[in-house]
């Protein structure tokens, strides 16, 4: 099942556009990374918050769909702690906190390569009946 979600995300146009790499996938968990480039910067000279959110969202999507059952996000709350900077490699890890037949709750942590906490997020998915694996 992990192979099916990796294949799907590898073809995702937005994730490819951002240069997101899939580093690890397990049942209910995932880790992805990317490098912050100049076109991702905001007017404060830091990475746009949407970049951190996008990375966390891809980890969330992989972790929640890792069972081969379609899971779609219904809510995400993100807390920004520190700015990502130009050239930083940022890593997002998603882990399952709770799972039942209809809903799943996930925690995402975004850090830079020095291990500094950039952001945290909590996301909930709705599990559809559709199986893709």
Automatic annotation (TrEMBL):
Q: Which Pfam families match?
A: 4HBT (PF03061)
User: Cross-referenced Gene3D superfamilies, in alphabetical order?
Assistant: Hotdog Thioesterase (3.10.129.10)
Keyword annotations: Hydrolase
Q: Does the keyword Hydrolase apply?
A: yes
Signal peptide location = none
Q: Which NCBIfam families match?
A: unchar_dom_1
Name of this chain's protein: Phenylacetic acid degradation protein
Q: Which organism does this record belong to?
A: Thalassobacillus devorans
